[in-house]
Every structure is written in structure tokens, then in C-alpha cells.
Amino acid sequence: MSKQQSYDDSGNRQRVAQLAARGVDVWGPERVYIANDVPLENIEAGASIVHATLRGAHLRIGRGARLGGSGHAEVTDCQIGRDVEIGAGCYEGATLLDGAKVRGFAELRPGTLLEEQAEAAHSVAFKNTILTATVVTGSLINYCDLFMSGGTSRDDHSEVGSGVIHFNFDPRGDKYGSLIGDVRGVLLRSAPIFVGGQCGLVAPLHIDFGAIVAAGSMVRRDVPANCVHFEGAGNARIENFDREVYAGVERKFLATAKLIGALRALTVWYEAVRIPFADDFEKVLYRAAQGQAHSHIRERVKRLGKIIGKLERSLVKTSGSSDTKLLSYHAEHRLLLQRRKEIEQALSSEPHATLPPRTFLQEYEKARRSGGHIDAVRSVSGEAADAAMDWLTAIAADPVSRLAKLFV
Predict the structure, then answer these.
(1) Total Cβ atoms within 10 A of residue 161
(2) Second CATH level (architecture) for the domain 3-229
(3) 203 membership: H or E segment, kind and range
(4) Which of 44, 142, 220, 266 is the least crowded, having the fewest Cβ atoms under 10 Å away?
(5) Entry pTM
(6) For residues 178 and 261, is the Cβ–Cβ distance under 8 A?
(7) In angstroms, rounded to a whole number, what is the distance separating the alpha carbons of residues 175 and 171?
(8) What is the pLDDT of residues 45-104, one digit of tens each?
(9) Among 336, 259, 340, 249, which Cα is nearest to 299's?
């Protein structure tokens, strides 16, 4: 059996020909492989597949999308919107909305959502990462477990310089996420955020709208709005460390609740605003976008549960300690162990069903009839947008409020 025959045993040439006949620009079976679990009808006419392997029953590709222009793209169960461009790399279980771009040599994993016109340069790694519309990152980015928004357009957007790392793991093996901007950024009326190149972001963090993080910073604390922040590595020091012993965790738990709140509000935004006025193809992508946010929420709740489970060992090891500071955290740790299920429930609960402000929804619906989502959001009056911000803020605040009460 020749290599040519072996390569095409599963009927790849036939599938390539079928797509071409439907108006998809496929660069030939020598450069493109389409697995037999891909529903060909999920690929819109006008898409261009240059150099790629496509797999998965949940794969969707919109018209005008271009896959593999800079090299081979391995694409599995991704939802790719219209006019999206992805270069070389591995893309699995990610969602990219209209006009998003990843230049190449990327790894996008489940939990990743790039909204309209979001862009990443070369050699990026995303997992449980959400970039709202128009956010841009440079090259050599490790940006897992993070939500980022901010800016008003592609000319006035939040940006991350090359070489930035989000440190989501700590020495105990615990894993946290961070919030840059917040859910209000979906309305494209927030000041952009700038994170300079070669920064390290130590989770969990919140960097607020309008903040500038100077290049080379090692950020270990929240950054308030509208300021320039520089934080160096600090003086070298050596301290005793026991990975089984915990100090206070309230700040990190509340920071996680804040991130979960933003994700919850994002799912409501899609359900109440975006999905009702979308066409059939967009609805599939928007449902997938909701799924990415839900996936990230589940990860955060699971990770906090694991931390609570380790507090019992910490209590045992420090019960006879003479360190009064460590002993002062015992009450907090016992409380978390006793209320573990309540905490998980508070963070996992769906937000109360509330409708968007009527004026906002009416203005958005009218604009959406004749244009895309980005133009529709921008066309909404300032008064209506402010009301929508208040609505989203209230939804996002709920997990923080619930968790804060449990710490009392």
C-alpha cells in the first residue's frame, strides 16, 4: 500500500472535495486533513482552510475565517466565528468570535474565549482565559486563568505587552485566577488597561480600568483605577516555609469570588442580550462562549475546594505552635472547613434572573437588526449604557457578597 493510499484511507480527499464544492476555499488534501467526525455543514462557505487538521463534532467555522496561514493549525472542537484568523498552533475547545486573530504558534485550550476583534500575537498560551472585545496581547504570553476587558475600540483598547506571565500556581500547588478590568468592559465604554512587557502577574489580582502597569513589574497586589503602577521584585530575603501550613486566605477567596462574579455576569449578558438577537450561526458561538465562562467558574470553585480540604492538615501542624500570627488564623480555617459546602454553593449558584434595563435592550435590539454586535453596543446611548453597567455590576457583586457573609 502506498503512502498516498494510506493517507486517504479515511476519505479525506472526498471530504476536502465536498467542502470545496460547497464554496469553502480548501488548499488541498496535501495541506488539509478533515477528520470524519467533523460535520461538514458546520463550515460556512467563504471560509479558507490553508494548512490545518480539523477534528471534532463541535467544530464550527464561519465565513471569511482563515486557518493555518502561518503554518499548520491543529483545530479540535473549536467554535470559530466569521473573519477570524488563526495561524500555526494547537487550538482545542476554544471559542473565537468574529474578527478575532491569533497570529501563530499558539496553544489555546478549553475555557478560552476571544471576543470580537481580540488579538494575540505569536507564541501565546491561553486556558480558562477570556479576552473581551478588542483586547490585544503581544507575543510570548502565558495568560491562563484570567478575565480581561477594557477599552472602547480597536483604536483604544486594553493591551498586554510581550513576555507577560500570569502566575496562576503558588508553591503549595494551589491555583488562582485574576481579573483585569471587569464585566463592565463588555459595553466598550471603559478606560483601557495597559500591562507593559516582561511583567509578572501573581494571582489572584484585580487590575482596574485605566491602570498602567510599568514594563518589568512583578505585580503581587491589586492595582487601582487610573494610576501608573511599578512594583519591582523587591529585596531578597529568606524565610521558613512549610507548604502544608496556611496563613489567612480570606483575601484570596474574596478575590476569587470577584472573578467568579464577573464570569457569572458575562453568562447573563450572553443569555439576555447577545443570544436573543443573533442569527443561527452566532447563537451556536454565543452558547459556546457561555460554556467557556461556566468552565472557568467550575475550575475556580474546584480549586478553592481543594484549598479548604488542606486546611485541616494545616490546623494539625500548627496546633502546638508558639507563632501567635499563625494561631490567629485557626478560627478562619475552622470556619471554612465547617462551611465548605455553603461556600461552594455560594460560588456555584446561578445569579438571580434579572432582565437588562428596558431602554438598553430596546436600543441594542434596534441597532442589531442592521449591524453586528460591536456596532450595536457602541450605538447605545450613554444613559442606557450606564443602566446596563449597573445591572451587570449588581450581578457580579452577588458571589462576593455571599462569601463575605460566610467569613463573618
Answers:
(1) 20
(2) 3 Solenoid (2.160)
(3) none
(4) 220
(5) 0.95
(6) no
(7) 10
(8) 999 999 999 999 999 999 999 999 999 999 999 999 999 999 999 999 999 999 999 999
(9) 259
